[in-house]
Amino acid sequence: MAAYVIVDLDVKDPGALESYRREVPATVAKYGGRFIVRGGAFEVLEGDWTPKRVVVLEFPTMDALKRWYRSNDYKPLLTERQRHSRANLIAVDGV
Fold this sequence. Notes:
This protein is of the alpha+beta class. The chain is built from three helices and four strands, in the order βαββααβ. The protein has one domain: Alpha-Beta Plaits. The radius of gyration is 13 Å and the shape is globular. The model has no long low-confidence stretch (mean pLDDT 96).
């Protein structure tokens, strides 16, 4: 069953995340993932959620998703992202 990472990302220093943006897609692909949404335009239709930048990743399984997120491939990039942004991030099973 597919699994998804859904992120609401507030980037504090866009220039500092250029290498993250370049390098993260290869780590996602290595674990079978792909970007579904990567910061496109959005419109809030209900509620009071006001995301800054929305990112959605799809992985073939929750196990693959967690292996990517906890991997040595992603760890230095995660540290870099966390240093220059704030995020709300969830992992969710698909149907």
